[in-house]
Amino acid sequence: MSKLDDLIQKLCPDGVEYKPLSEIFNTRNGYTPSKKEKNFWENGTVPWFRMEDIRENGGILDHAMQYVSINAIKGDPFPANSIIVATSATIGEHALITVPSIANQRFTYLMIKNQYRNEYDPKFLYYYCFKLDEYCKECLNQGNFASVDMKKFSKFQFPRLPMEIQREIVGVLDNYTEVTAKIKASLEKELVARQKQYEFYRDKLLTFDVLRGGTIDFRWRMLCEIADISTGNSNTNEAVEDGKYPFFVRSQEPLRKNDFEYDEAAIITAGDGVGVGKVYHYIEGKYALHQRAYRIHINTSEVVPKYYFHYMKAKFLPYIQKTMFQGSVASIRRPMLNAFPVPVLPLDVQNRIVNVLDNFEKICSDLNIGLPAEIEARQKQYEYYRDKLLTFAEIGNTI
To answer: Do 251 and 241 contact (CB within 8 A), yes or no?
Structure first.
């Protein structure tokens, strides 16, 4: 039996009393000071919290990304060790704020009442509010704008535990949170490192200046000399969810369409938008193409299409960045594609490069699937044990 089990058995042998949220906390909505009053937003000393703060810095916060002046405050700031809970728009997030503050109108402040101040550890309440997050998702008002039914919100039940038990739970969860965060960070670093390793070896493998005057015969060709290049004819609104053919647009994920425009081996890249120089697809077979995406169909037997695909992924973005002002790439023009220089190597060398890079890409792809799945599994494991640790038998009942 664990120390926590011993404490519960000793201090709560008959179960735990629960109290509604409205009895333990005073609640108030957050707000946004007027943007018209410039002095409210200059030389600020009071932190003003938004959802971005939670996403950027986690759930226990002592500073904000934005500050407002004391003149912007209605009355006094909300007290330190208050909890903010998202009750409109993005439901299911909360944070413990350890300093006096305000937050925007998407949040409801939970401020512990004076008579309960010495009965609750703020971090225990923070951890228990993960249960409140899930409860909020089940208590939404009907309508187009997501918001929590505040009458139901006020009835959410908090356990009234001895402080010794609360602190033991906080210690266990702090430790587990730290361990889980380290594991996730390690897995994420591994993912980034493997991708960088792949890109390093790909770029080394596809850099041919060292071959000049060497034993391997190769020559440079402009892309227009070895490929047919054109854009598609389809619009995004023509996509259907379960379409028969892949429909390549300007993003990393293709859509679907029930009719096709081309039946060939081709390299696809975005013509404009955020995917310029970054989004590439390789296709063999029937497909549809967006009107602002390019297809590059190799039309000579001297070039292996998959070899060119790997070469373009490695070299095309630096090439077009050099041709644009300050490296900013808004769109690709046909002449830029036409003039892209491509080294044409002997076919056996091209095929060896394709084999090496396909295998390396598969390893990276497997990692991209496996490591995020492992990260998600660790998070779910953490949430499971956190939920178990925060579940108590009510007086007169058993779990």
So the answer is: no
Nearest to 69 by CA among 34, 93, 104, 96: 34
- Residue 8 CB: number of other CB atoms within 10 A? 21
| Length of the chain counted residue by residue | 399
Pairwise pLDDT comparison (239 vs 321), residue with the higher score: 239
Of 218, 377, 379, 374, the residue nearest 302 (C-alpha) = 218
Domain boundaries, the chain: 1-16+161-186+347-399, 18-160, 219-344
| pLDDT single digits (tens) 191-250 | 788 778 878 877 777 776 544 545 567 789 999 999 999 999 999 999 998 899 999 998
Integer angstrom CA distances of residue 97 from 2, 49, 72, 147, 159? 31, 9, 19, 22, 21
Mention every residue, 6+ apart, whose C-beta is less than 8 A from residue 156: 20, 21, 132, 135
End-to-end CA distance of the chain: 17
Are 205 and 356 contacting, i.e. CB atoms less than 8 angstroms apart? Answer: yes
pLDDT grade for 396, boundaries at 50, 70 and 90: low
Question: Is residue 111 classed as helix, strand or coil in its secondary structure?
Answer: strand
* pLDDT tens-digit series, residues 271-309: 888 778 887 899 999 999 999 999 999 999 999 999 999
Rg (CA), the chain: 29
| Cα–Cα dist 391/396, whole Å | 15
Rounded distance, CA 90 to CA 107, Å?
10
Taking only the tens place, the pLDDT of each residue in 89-119 is: 889 899 999 999 999 999 999 999 999 999 9
User: Residue 363 CB: number of other CB atoms within 10 A?
Assistant: 13
Give the Cα separation of 38 and 203 in Å (integer): 50
**What is the pLDDT at residue 397?**
63
CATH fold for domain 18-160: Adenine-n6-DNA-methyltransferase TaqI; Chain A, domain 2 (3.90.220)
Other residues' Cβ atoms within 10 Å of the Cβ of residue 9: 10
53 against 322, higher pLDDT? 53
Structure tokens at 274: 């955020």
CA 156-138-101 angle, to 5 degrees, is 60
- Residue ranges in 227-346 assigned as alpha helix (H): 305-323, 334-338
CATH 3.90.249.10 fits 219-344, yes or no: no
Strands 102-103 and 219-222: unpaired
